[in-house]
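Q: what does this look like with LNRAV4D5 bound?
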Amino acid sequence: MNDTPSPLRIADDVLHILDQTRLPFAEHELRIDTAAQAAHAIATMQVRGAPLIGAIGAFGLALALREAADDAALDAARRMLAATRPTAVNLAWALDRVARAVQPLAPSARADAAWHEALAICDEDRAANRAIGEHTLTLIHALPATGRINLMTHCNAGWLATTGWGTALSGIYLARQAGLDLHVWVSETRPRNQGLLTSWELARAGVPHTVIADNAAGQLMREGKVDAVVIGADRIAANGDTANKVGSYLKALAARAHARPFWVAAPWSTIDLTCADGDAIPIEERSGDEVRVVRGAEGGITVLDDSRQVANPAFDVTPAALVSAIVTERGVIDTAAGRTPSSTELKVVSR
Ligand SMILES: CSC[C@H]1O[C@H](OP(=O)(O)O)[C@H](O)[C@@H]1O
């Protein structure tokens, strides 16, 4: 799995992360050697993307256990890290997994065991994402498109958002490697502009793409310029309702209106069977400053002052009825086929 870039690097038993708040303008690595630094990196989106914040949370818990490893310290560190971002279930999932692995151990053995568990989470994430890419490639091959294939994506669900390969972008990378004639519409994804990260990734990989304003998606679909939409996910409820970066829902509505497939690509750890449907998914409300200030290479420009009210929900929920397929490492859950889910699909409902 070494043939993928990664936003994190382990050296000298500490973490080094690519600071995503400085991309795409500057490539700058940050050293993370305390749990507080890991929590800060997640909360400020120096690291972002559901699988990646899960991995950084896991390492953060291991770093906390180097300082104190009794039950109270474990619980406090876990809560502190879990509180950083609420929507992506991968964070809580990874923290629970590490805590479960170390709880039976003596405090003196916990930090090393937690570190190894975090490394295992990363290995499994890369393998899962590669498998997601292979399943997505099958869907791409099955598109009725003749000539160049035009996909659309939203936000950044590439290797920057994971520990390698990406989720939504994994299939795009494999399609490119397979020599498919493919072009990607990349929506800029205001207010944090993660679309610029996607463009940065795709440019590095030589994938033809075009960045669009978020509001251009419907017109492009209307003009027949989009063959399918593929996005990542932060939490998928038991009925298939999908929380992803705000703006995903509007793309799903437009895709349905124009009879285009809308695929959600995510590892199994993003499925939260404790959420019956999308109404149970917590939606992160971020600072209004992200809307008030437009960031660029030279810092930020304030476009709206504090006297104006701003709302900034960071995610939205796309109802399962608008999702054509959920692609996980276990295969494709075809939510449009109207068949009964298999045992591996558990409670994810087919439509
Ligand atoms: C591969 S999951 C990517 C996922 O992460 C996102 O959010 P954020 O940038 O706020 O961490 C977004 O919903 C992406 O689809």
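The chain has a mean pLDDT of 94. The pocket of LNRAV4D5 is lined by residues 48-51, 155, 157, 161-162, 167, 194, 231-232, 234, 244-245, 314 (CB under 6 Å).
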